[in-house]
Amino acid sequence: MIEYSGQPHYLLAVDCIVFGFDGEHLKILLVKRGLEPEINKWSLIGGFVGANESPDDAANRVLKKNTGLEGIYLEQLQIYGEPNRDPIERTLSVGYFALIDIHKYQTQINDDYHAEWFLINDRPKLIFDHDQMVSDARKKLRYKAALHPILFEMLPKKFTIPQLQILFEEVNDTKIDTRNFSRKIGSTGLLIKLAEKDKSGSKKGAFYFKVDKKKYNANFQAFLNLIPNLKP
Amino acid sequence: MIEYSGQPHYLLAVDCIVFGFDGEHLKILLVKRGLEPEINKWSLIGGFVGANESPDDAANRVLKKNTGLEGIYLEQLQIYGEPNRDPIERTLSVGYFALIDIHKYQTQINDDYHAEWFLINDRPKLIFDHDQMVSDARKKLRYKAALHPILFEMLPKKFTIPQLQILFEEVNDTKIDTRNFSRKIGSTGLLIKLAEKDKSGSKKGAFYFKVDKKKYNANFQAFLNLIPNLKP
DNA sequence: TTATTAATTGTCAAAAAGACAATTAATAAT
DNA sequence: ATTATTAATTGTCTTTTTGACAATTAATAA
Q1: B217–chain A Cβ distance below 8 A for any pair
Q2: Labelling A104: which of A55, B124, B134, B204 has CA 20 to 30 A away?
Q3: Nucleotide with smallest C1' distance to residue B198 CA
Q4: How far apart are CA A170 and CA A22, in angstroms?
Q5: Residue among A220, A9, A21, A202 nearest A120 (CA)
């Protein structure tokens, strides 16, 4: 059997930046690392890529183990491969960012794996280059959300326009005019208005909407220009 | 010394999709593979990631070796990691796409490494999953070029508006109205008109332009919306 | 002087974006 | 029963951008 002689071999890991939205702020899911080095320090959800799985497979497996969820929105960020990023031995890591509906997340699994949600702007220091990963993922989320309707992945099936607007404002760290926002969201044709109202936030109540899945899938790659004042 | 016991180790490679523009069509640079398996078949420019370099370093090294060029525009595409993508042993590859001015490319290096330019739409079948990589890179180039002024990387320092327009049309596989195109390009403020004319293409001649490097760097991350009819 | 050819430039209508605040629908208070 | 309160919802005007259209210009060749 032929071999690629003399070439070095490395460990390969995946690390997931899991974003959620609690109705007010962006959050990320962190775990206490279970192995040396840096055991018991806060870390992204990650694991090694197994012999018979692709990095995408590994990310999905690791996410299911830590959140109980399948079919999560997952996107490859980039590879992190500085020679000394892991002090034990050379390990490269494929960064992924994931968007989940924070309400689907099961606390029981939280307890099993010591996972915990943190405000993105008030999180503990992370191991290795994980802080860099979070920063990169944050940027990519903003970039992508300006053009494609990915933020719906962080909301429940039924949501209101005010909820959606707060999420957009949070991701882009900006205030958006209510009238212009609802006009723009409406013009995408992605939302279906429901008869039911959410009365928890006000006396008047806000109508629930859901995503039109067909249009969502059909238009996902289109450029939507969802954020005002994008031009320099 | 601590070790991550029991985890499998893999080879890691980089593969570069090198784009160029000959004034009429998009081209990619391919090499004849120099090692088994699939020796002498056409392949992307690639190599293994060495023990003391990051994947980015490796891509730059491999590109310099095959093109003689440094400081090439390089962007990480994604990782390719299906377990059996390499028949010899498990090798994951980080795909990069590169944009170069085809005129800077030295033929002498071409001969050393048997590298050759091919029309993107008329290229030989490639080894492993390299055809998939080219297809992905092609898509990403179009996506990125719709929003950011990266196509200048494929033109010489001095270029004309008609040349630029043909490049845009080629990348997006569409015809663009001359008047609207020059208005839009002009409104970016990225171009500086030179006194000199290119007389090779017509009797009247076309004015040369160059990129305003300061504005280019300052506005690179801004969304430019350079391609007409982007909306669904 | 005229013909030829590609480069360059202008106008108008439609659509989108941005700035701006009044109205509405419910509940709570009187 | 009426009024006060509060957040949700909706409308108009102006400015900017886009898209669809062809005439003019600058050079060389005939």
Answers
A1: no
A2: A55
A3: C7
A4: 11
A5: A21
